[in-house]
Backbone:
């Protein structure tokens, strides 16, 4: 049961929303279309093309306390409490246990950059090599005559290097040598992925807990593992 306090404002998104959008995609729409902060406590409702499905996003704070038992109680920093029969921790790095799962994964820092590229320059595919450290390339559709080429890789174990700028420079040199038609850089970013020993994600019941589940250990395959975890959680 998720109690919604009476002072929470509710926004209805008119028109159709692509129901494949996840929390992050819907939050981006709130930010970019409405110009509002999706973390500010208001509730946003979206409807799909057929009108028989809605998605709601509501951020009422971060979970700061977890009580497990016959039911799971999640206490948020906003003061509210959510009670449920089961809980899935899909926080990338699990927050419900600090040892049992973390000791079976290694955090790696990874890097990515986006460049403009004229549509049709490269066939639309996901490319990657088998080197260590590896590189990968994909296209993201843009508007007009331009797409975005995303290049990523040059990972290292977290804490074992502090040379991010050199890694971005290497990424750019690698892709410009392969694709000289590349235009200007649009963005660069970096973050952590959690590697398991066999690169297979942990989408499992949390050790020692009957009604708590985790989805983690994506090993840079979060898009695939995320969809898989969503499907498995419905079983
Ligand atoms: C630079 C970079 C490039 C990548 N490239 C790729 C790629 O090309 N292909 C690919 O498949 N994957 C890639 N990944 C990995 C992928 O992004 C992640 O594996 C994936 O986003 C994990 O999804 P998730 O939903 O489990 O976690 P996240 O997307 O991290 O979402 C977790 C959510 O939990 C919320 N949360 C955390 N703590 C709390 C709390 N206490 N209370 C409430 N909410 C909380 C966070 O706010 C967040 O919204 C890349 C990652 C990085 C950093």
Residues:
């Amino acid at each position: 049961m998720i109690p919604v306090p009476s002072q929470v404002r509710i926004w209805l998104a008119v028109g159709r929303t692509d129901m494949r959008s996840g929390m992050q995609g819907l939050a981006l729409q709130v930010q970019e279309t409405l110009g509002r902060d999706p973390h500010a406590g208001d509730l946003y409702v979206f409807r799909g093309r057929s009108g028989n499905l809605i998605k709601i996003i509501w951020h009422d704070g971060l979970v700061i306390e977890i009580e497990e038992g016959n039911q799971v109680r999640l206490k948020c920093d906003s003061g509210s409490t959510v009670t449920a029969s089961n809980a899935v921790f899909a926080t990338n790095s699990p927050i419900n246990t600090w040892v049992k799962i973390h000791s079976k994964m290694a955090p790696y820092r990874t890097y990515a950059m986006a460049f403009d590229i004229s549509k049709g320059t490269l066939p639309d595919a996901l490319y990657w090599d088998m080197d260590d450290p590896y590189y990968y390339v994909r296209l993201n559709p843009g508007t007009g005559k331009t797409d975005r080429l995303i290049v990523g890789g040059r990972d290292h174990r977290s804490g074992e290097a502090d040379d991010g700028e050199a890694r971005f420079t290497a990424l750019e040199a690698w892709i410009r040598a392969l694709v000289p038609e590349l235009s200007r850089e649009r963005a660069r970013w970096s973050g952590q992925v959690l590697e398991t020993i066999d690169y297979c994600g942990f989408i499992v019941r949390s050790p020692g807990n009957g009604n708590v589940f985790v989805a983690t250990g994506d090993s840079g395959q979060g898009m695939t593992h995320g969809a898989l975890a969503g499907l498995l959680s419905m079983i």
